[in-house]
């Protein structure tokens, strides 16, 4: 039987310990904070930056999207839309976008939200739309995924919405 020196066992033990720790931590966070125009939100690293007209920020993942739209209250007023509260803004958004089923606007912590389904190009999607009132602006944060995956992602969407802060 071959003799192994102490240094070999020390190095092997150290390497196994490092590999074990990496397996526990997943080599870093699965999340990242997105910062845009004074808003911060935490999204999964599955989301990649993309571009969408009229969106302040827009990210896509293999199974869905996350986007934010910032609207100044002054611009909303100039457009002739009356939105004196986040509730007014949410209801105006629902009407303006012909969202089916007149979804109920609910309150959660520091924001309002509503859920709905829509067929786009023959594919069914589910949406969670959150409305934030931040001083002189409203922020609309929209999450969407394939309808059949919505129950799986709903909690993640709410966790991201709960992470929103304004700087």
Fold blueprint:
Elements: H1 6-25, E1 31-36, E2 39-44, E3 48-49, E4 57-60, E5 64-72, H2 73-78, H3 86-96, E6 106-108, E7 111-120, E8 123-134, E9 137-146, H4 150-162, E10 165-166
Antiparallel strand pairs: 1-2, 2-10, 3-4, 4-5, 5-9, 6-7, 7-8, 8-9
Explain what this protein looks like in three dimensions.
The chain has 167 residues and is of the alpha+beta class. Helices cover 30% and strands 38% of the residues. It contains four helices and ten strands. The strands form two sheets. Strands 3-4-5-9-8-7-6 form a seven-stranded antiparallel beta sheet. A three-stranded antiparallel beta sheet has the order 1-2-10.
Characterize this entry briefly.
The protein contains 4 helices and 10 strands; from the N terminus they run αβββββααββββαβ. It has helices spanning 6-25, 73-78, 86-96, 150-162; strands at residues 31-36, 39-44, 48-49, 57-60, 64-72, 106-108, 111-120, 123-134, 137-146, 165-166.
The biggest beta sheet reads: 7 strands, antiparallel
Quickly count the helices: 4
How do the strands line up in the largest sheet? 3-4-5-9-8-7-6
| Beta strand % | 35-45%
Distance between the termini: 66 Å
Helix content: 25-40%
Low-confidence stretches: 8-27
Mean pLDDT: 86
Number of E strands: 10
Please supply descriptive tags for the structure shown above.
single chain, 167 residues, alpha+beta, seven-stranded antiparallel sheet, three-stranded antiparallel sheet, 4 helices, 38% strand, globular
């Amino acid at each position: 039987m071959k003799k192994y020196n102490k240094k070999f066992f020390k190095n092997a033990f150290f390497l196994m310990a490092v590999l074990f720790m990496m397996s526990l931590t997943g080599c870093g966070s699965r999340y990242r904070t997105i910062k845009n125009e004074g808003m911060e939100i935490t999204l999964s690293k599955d989301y990649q930056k993309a571009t969408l007209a009229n969106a302040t920020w827009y990210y896509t993942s293999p199974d869905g999207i996350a986007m934010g739209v910032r609207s100044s209250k002054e611009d909303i007023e100039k457009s002739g839309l009356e939105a004196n509260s986040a509730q007014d803004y949410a209801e105006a958004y629902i009407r303006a976008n012909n969202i089916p089923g007149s979804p109920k606007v609910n309150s959660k912590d520091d924001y309002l939200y509503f859920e709905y389904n829509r067929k786009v190009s023959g594919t069914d999607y589910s949406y969670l739309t959150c409305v934030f009132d931040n001083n002189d602006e409203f922020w609309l944060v929209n999450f969407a995924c394939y309808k059949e995956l919505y129950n799986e992602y709903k909690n993640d969407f709410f966790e991201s919405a709960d992470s929103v802060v304004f700087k």
